[in-house]
Write a structure and sequence with these properties.
Helix 1 runs antiparallel to helix 2, helix 1 (2-25) packs antiparallel against helix 4 (81-110) and helix 3 runs antiparallel to helix 4. This protein has one domain. The chain has helices spanning 2-25, 30-50, 54-70, 81-110. It is mainly alpha-helical. It starts with a helix and ends with a helix.
């Protein structure tokens, strides 16, 4: 259950660092706006997971799966290498969050 919180916090840090890297090295694109929209729900879900709320684990799994499906839509015909790297790593983190969130939800249901 703590792994879910750790993965969510790692994802938030990754989004913040990716936004900073985009501002410094890449053209400003939709990545920053989408990162801000994603950080807020994941921050709220991480607090709920920290307090061991079952809906927090389920919500993090569902939100992560939605974002895994929506992430390739961010890639356009002129994708920068930085954006490609960011979407690849974010997809990997989101899959891990989804798996860990659903696993923690099922474990909390047993107890």
């Amino acid at each position: 259950m703590k792994a879910t919180v750790a993965l969510i916090l790692a994802f938030i840090v990754f989004l913040v660092l990716g936004s900073i890297a985009t501002l410094l090295f890449g053209p400003v694109d939709i990545y920053i706006a989408l990162s801000l929209l994603v950080i807020i729900p994941f921050a709220l879900l991480s607090v709920a997971c920290w307090k061991r709320k079952r809906w927090g684990f389920a919500g993090s799994g569902i939100l992560a799966l939605i974002l895994v499906v929506a992430t390739p839509a961010a890639l356009g015909p002129e994708t920068t290498p930085l954006l490609l790297w960011e979407t690849t790593v974010s997809t990997l983190l989101l899959v891990l969050i989804a798996l860990e969130g659903f696993k923690a939800y099922l474990e909390s249901k047993k107890t």
